[in-house]
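Dear support,

I submitted the protein below through the web form. The confirmation email said the job was done, but the results page showed an empty box. After a refresh the structure appeared. I'm attaching both so you can tell me whether what I see now is the final result or a partial one.
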Amino acid sequence: MNYAPIALFVYNRPKHTRQTVKSLLDNAEAAQSSLYIFSDAFRDAKSRHAVAEVRSYIHSIAGFKSVTIIERETNYGLARSIIEGVTQLCDEYGRVIVLEDDLVTSPHFLAFMNDALTRYEHEDRVMQIAGYMFPVDLNIREDALFLPFISSWGWATWQRAWQHFDAEAKGYKKLSKDRDLIRKFDLGGHYNYFKMLSAQQQGKADSWAIRWYLSIFLRNGLALYPRKTLVKNVGFDGSGVNCAVSIIEESLLDMNFKVQSMPDELEISLAQDAVLNNMPVPSLNMVSVVNRLLSVFRRILGLR
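What the results page shows now:
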């Protein structure tokens, strides 16, 4: 099999980065996979030490087919870092698996990513493979399903799909003029993605993910999801620059679950309503709240 390269984006969380790498190494396919680590530069003085610690650790990583480290000399921020990193690897390899530094993966994550990338390689409507699934019980025949929206927690794509990435969100104008299209974009009112997109356009947010969703949405694209999650986000402790305060991350990893069957029909799954109607509503995570408050107090007091 032609194993896709893995793009890992890291910043200032050494503990989380170690967890992410350790879980990846538990995948049998890791030894045949090239790992590219994109390390962003520190944004301010208080993150300098943590970035240095992360960089020291990533230079010790072994167990992959190869490890290539790209250390940014200036702070790109997550959105620019991911956009440029994914573009680079898609241009070079034609496909890529993407992870951030707070994601713990199942031992069967890489198998699913690579199998699905191979199976749907020439299916233009399939634009993303998602590793995460919400904590929802699904009664479906296959081990995977197609949905019309993306996930940013452990995913993969092809150059043929990523070339349609709308970095400037030019499709916003078309979307903003059509209320029915906005409602569809918001998944029938389940999530206010249009509000997120509007914030992006107003310069109040910098999200690669909402622009990627827009790119797929306007092309009637699909994302393939596993029936059970193969990814757990461990970054909801207030340590992340971009992490939300939510309990939606509480999907448990079933270490024995493997995706052994995938849909033949390139259609939105009939289980979409079950997913949308049973998704947990984001709510406050007190650990995250406390850690963020402590971080504020440390800055006020001049502590690290």
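Response: this is the final, complete result; the empty box was a page-load delay. The domain at 6-164+219-301 is CATH 3.90.550.10 (Spore Coat Polysaccharide Biosynthesis Protein SpsA; Chain A).
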